[in-house]
Amino acid sequence: MIDRQSSPSETILASLPRRRRAEARFRIYGIAAIGIALAFLILLISAIGTQGIGAISQTEIALDVTLDESVLGLSDARDRETLSKANYRAVIRAALGDVFPEAVSARRDRRALMKLVSVGAGFELRNLVLEDPGLVGGTMRVWVPADDEVDMLMKGATARDSGRFSDKQLGWLDQLEEEGRIRSAFNWRFFTSGDSREPELAGILGAIAGSFFALITCLVLSFPLGVMTAIYLEEFAPRNRWTDLIEININNLAAVPSIVFGLLGLAIFLGFMGLTRSAPLVGGMVLALMTLPTVIIATRASLRAVPPSIREAAIGLGASRMQAMLHHTLPLAMPGIMTGTIIGMAQALGESAPLIMIGMVAFIVDMPQGLLDPASALPVQIYIWADSPERAFAEKTAAAIIVLLAFLIIMNLTAVILRRRFERRW
Amino acid sequence: MTKLTARNVNVFYGDAHALKQVNLDIRQNEVTALIGPSGCGKSTFLRCLNRMNDLIEACRVEGNICLDGEDIYDPAVDLVYLRARIGMVFQKPNPFPKSVYDNVAYGPKIHGLASSRAEMDDIVTSSLERAGLFEEVKDRLGAPATGLSGGQQQRLCIARAIAVCPEIILMDEPCSALDPIATARIEALIDELKQNFTIVIVTHSMQQAARVSQRTAFFHLGDLVEVGDTDTVFTKPVDPRTESYISGHIG
Predict the structure, then answer these.
(1) How far is Cα B231 from Cα B215, in angstroms, rounded to an integer?
(2) B90 with A317: Cβ contact below 8 A
(3) Bridge partners, B25 (sequence order)
(4) Which superfamily is assigned to B2-94+168-246 in CATH?
(5) CA dihedral over A337, A341, A342, A343, signed as positive or negative
(6) Which chain B residue lies closest to A332 (C-alpha atoms)?
């Protein structure tokens, strides 16, 4: 007989408190882990948010400009080219001179005064005139963007005594403010223009367009290729050493650092094939290389998740393998495939390293109009701005990050909604 | 008349010998029941008859199976045509996640059996009628088939199979997922169908085999132990293994 000090049930009872404590401890660890993760997330978002919120507004200065033909340097001709070549800066200078007559005499004062408004003020005035040439000769009040330093000062990001402004300049700004000539307006330029050396003129639309063209290329290439590869591997390929090798390679490719794909693109697409540098087409091709494994793996998983009974039913009726695949398995796997593809696209959208390798990091002011125009991309734009010395670019960087995050959240949300909506129970 | 003949059929799953030297004739317009304990090879044999085993890569079939005297394992045989002639109903009802109508219409559609919408409607209606389902679903032909009850789904699968006008219908434990009432309906249906089709049914229920079949084949551990008229097999089994199985001692 086995010698026991206590009966089995007593032993079990005695061990219960210990097990309960272990379980409670485990739960606390879990909650703590989630709590820490949440805290960091909140910290990150609030840090970016508070920084980026400033980019939504832009300080503007009101000037009463007189579009005098002689100041503009215009003769009689009123064609587009002459108008666009006219000297609008002189008009701005004259308008500033009207507000501060005492500052016009000294050349240094004039320069200091001109520094308060953005160099983009002349361009905006030109665009107004090009839209309506009838403005020439008249006088009107326009709100022009202030220089980024002024903007920073008005937003309180730079102190008055930081030494960036002379006392005279500070005085002028005070006077402008008193006269109601300074306002903080919605920064539409940030959402409607391309990159610029001047922070107050820089926008993200060019980068968004570049990202858009690159992603379209990426989708058009990687979706059909990926889905067809997955279908072949899942449905038609024999299981042997070669397909095993292919499978291992695909899984490995998914883990290859993106910069390697960038180097590959540089060597093959630019070096060997001689495609255009900095073009979203090439960027998209590189991103497609990167996204392909993701699409293939997601597609194979979704195809496998379709119950084999559906396929057997079709084949039992005399459908060919391809008919069974195209009529039944593939449509049922589609939501999963789309989810995987969207997640792959979201990854591609956030990728900067491969794009830098193929030259999409250039400073590009013009909006890309097509796949072959030189362009930048959202994450690369963030990288460029984060690298810029001007203080005002800090808030642009943060704002661009917010825009990128917003796009990513929208894409991932779409994926989640798709998955929820079409989720099937068999 | 013999419809299907199997001679010296051996099936291997990799190294496992699943069916050993099976010789079996299946007669036209009769119900042949395949019975035996789990893993005895009866479903494997059934799936040899329309070459569904081809889908399993490790599976190897040896021997001859002839449909109307023609070897169905001949390399020249077109699988699409073969499976159109030999339909199949599976263990678990597996309607496509489409409408009732589309389920029945799928087979005729891929084989091009209907030249017009009206003709297709006819095929669908008559198939559902022959499967005894039409009265229950006539108002919801457009409703998803997955919303039907289990028994209705299985009858839909039978309607789907007969819509292609096969010569033989293979049924792999068609009632194992159904309640007794649904089972009784399917059994009555099988009895009717044998006038037009040759039916081979795998079943775990000996009562079912006794009720619906004219001939019974008993499999055990990969061997075809005994085959004969159902009455004879159940009342005067020749082999002791058959006797102990039908009296409940093995399996």
Answers:
(1) 8
(2) no
(3) B5
(4) P-loop containing nucleotide triphosphate hydrolases (3.40.50.300)
(5) positive
(6) B97
* CA-based end-to-end distance of chain A: 53
Question: Can you tell me the distance from the alpha carbon of B180 to that of B182, in angstroms, rounded to the nearest whole number?
Answer: 6
pLDDT digit string (tens) for chain B, length 251 residues? 888 899 999 999 988 898 999 999 999 999 999 998 888 888 999 999 999 888 888 888 999 999 998 899 988 889 899 999 999 999 999 999 999 999 999 999 999 988 899 999 999 999 999 888 898 998 999 999 999 998 899 999 999 999 999 999 999 999 888 888 889 989 999 998 999 999 999 998 888 999 999 999 999 988 999 999 999 999 988 898 988 888 877 65
DSSP category for residue B144:
B
Residue of A nearest to B109 (CA): A319
If you count residue pairs, one on A and one on B, with CB atoms under 8 Å apart, how many are there? 61
Closest residue to B164, CB basis, from A238, A309, A318 = A318
| Domain residue ranges in chain A | 54-186, 205-422
End-to-end CA distance of chain B: 32
Gap between the Cα atoms of A48 and A335, Å rounded? 34
Map out the domains of chain B as residue ranges: 2-94+168-246
Model confidence, pTM: 0.83
User: CA torsion sign, B169 to B164 to B106 to B51?
Assistant: positive
Concatenating the DSSP letter of every residue in A239-253 gives -SHHHHHHHHHHHHH
Looking only at the bridges linking them, the beta strands covering A182-186 and B198-202 are unpaired
Chain B touched by A307 (CB under 8 Å): yes
B224-229, long-range: CB < 8 A, 24+ apart: B224/B21, B224/B22, B224/B23, B224/B24, B224/B45, B225/B36, B227/B24
Which residue of A235, A244, A317 is the best one to mutate when testing the B interface, meaning the one whose CB has the most B CBs within 10 A?
A: A317
In degrees, rounded to 5, the angle at the alpha carbon of residue A344 between the alpha carbons of residues A341 and A348 is 135
The predicted model gives A344-364 an average pLDDT of 90
| ipTM for the complex shown | 0.89
Are A385 and A298 in contact by the 8 Å Cβ rule? The answer is no
Q: Return the CATH superfamily for domain A205-422.
A: MetI-like (1.10.3720.10)
Torsion sign over Cα B136, B137, B139, B143: positive
Start-end of H helices in A200-329: 205-231, 241-253, 258-265, 280-305, 308-316, 321-324
Please check whether residue A314 touches B, CB under 8 A: yes
pLDDT at A163: 83
Round to whole Å and give the CA distance between A227 and A341: 10
- Distances in Å between the alpha carbon of B229 and those of A277, B135, B194? 81, 35, 16
User: What residue of B is the nearest CA neighbor of A239?
Assistant: B57
Contacts (Cβ under 8 Å, ≥6 apart) of B117: none
Tell me how crowded residue A84 is: count the other CB atoms within 10 A of its CB.
Answer: 13
Is the Cβ–Cβ distance between B228 and B216 less than 8 Å?
A: yes
Q: What span, in angstroms and rounded, lies between the C-alpha atoms of B248 and B251?
A: 7
| DSSP SS3 for A62 | strand
For A316, counting Cβ atoms within 10 Å of its Cβ (0-12 exposed, 13-18 middle, 19+ buried), the class is buried
B139: CB partners within 8 A, 6+ apart: none
Closest Cα in chain B, distance from residue A268 (Å): 39
Residue B243 CB contacts under 8 Å (≥ 6 apart), including other chains: B237
Q: How far apart are CA A346 and CA A364, in angstroms?
A: 24
CB contact under 8 A, A238 and B96: no
